[in-house]
Amino acid sequence: MSLSSENQEQEVIVPIAVAPVNRNNKTILETTFPDCPLWQPHSVDPAVAERMAYDGCNGGYGCCYAAFYSIIGQMAEKHGAPYKDFPFHVMKAGRSGVGGWKSTCGALLGAAFAYGLFYEKKEHNELVRELFYWHDTTALPIYRPKTNCKLDVDLPTSISDSVLCITSKTCWAYSSGFPIKSKESSERCARLTADVARKAIEILNAKIDGTFVPTADKNAGMKYEISASSVKDDPASVILVKQPEFRPVKAS
Asked: What residues are paired with 26 via a beta bridge?
């Protein structure tokens, strides 16, 4: 609002967002974003998180919600606000690789979002890299509930070599012989979510107490070229391979 020279109220339309303006090859954002102070992290119990994550995943909340709540939910239950005021239900969106799309593993997303409440880009990337690298190179699942196990059977393990939900599921299905859409596969995801929650908290607790030492290669990242022949007949058989060296081709 503003007042005219005749003291009459006039409507002033304030743009919420506008396109960036490029001045002297430097992009200047004309939208002001609110300052969001980071929350303070607290150490939580990884053993408790395992059970919470497993139950949450099997309870219909999804892997992303379960992993996130096993971290931030523990802080909420012990420390109250602001942790208890977080709209936890939004984390359901990350289930099964975001809305069932089977992209990035929901359990990993939940843990990465939890880290994001406390750390800025450089430190956040370091924690995520450590967790994701562990996930990609570790035979999972490890966790098996001692009581109230939804499917109380021994499950084979596999190394996914990828953070993608579909690739992880496919590798495990190929290794185990169980279909992706099976009760064994669902149980595997719940146990893997528990594994991710435990590891995420071990990393977080070490960061808090000053003992965190990164072990993942700083250049580690997802291998992202897709072999076209692998998806010709079955989209679920996606194989990720190393990106070849780029060689420019001279025009003839």
From this structure: 23
- DSSP state letter for 161: -
236 CB-near residues (< 8 Å, 6+ apart) = 166, 169, 170, 180
Nearest to 50, CA basis, from 185, 200, 195:
195
Backbone region of residue 45 per phi and psi (left: phi > 0; alpha: psi in -120 to 50; beta: other values): beta
3-class state of residue 81 by DSSP = coil
Identity of the amino acid at 192: L
User: Cis omega before residue 235 (within 30°)?
Assistant: no
Give the torsion sign (CA, 41, 44, 50, 51): negative
Crossing angle (nearest 10°) for helices 46-58 and 183-209: 150
Beta bridge partners of 9: 3
- The 10s digit of each residue's pLDDT in 166-211 is 999 999 999 999 999 999 999 999 999 999 999 999 999 999 999 9
35: phi then psi, degrees, rounded to nearest 5: -75, 125
The torsion angles phi and psi of 164, rounded to 5 degrees, stand at -75, 135
Q: Which of 129, 148, 132 is nearest to 140 (CA)?
A: 132
| Residue 73 CA: distances (Å) to CA of 17, 44, 92, 106, 190 | 34, 10, 14, 17, 18
Task: Give the DSSP per-residue string, 210-225.
Answer: T-----S-TT-----E
Report the b/e string of 167-200 with b at 16+ CB within 10 A.
bbbbbbbeebebebeeebbbbbbbbbbbbbbbbb
Instruction: Tell me the C-alpha distance between 29 and 219, whole Å.
Output: 30
- 247: amino acid identity, one letter: R
Which pLDDT does position 246 carry in this prediction? 33
Instruction: Assess contact for 168 and 162: CB atoms under 8 A.
Output: yes
pTM (two decimals): 0.78
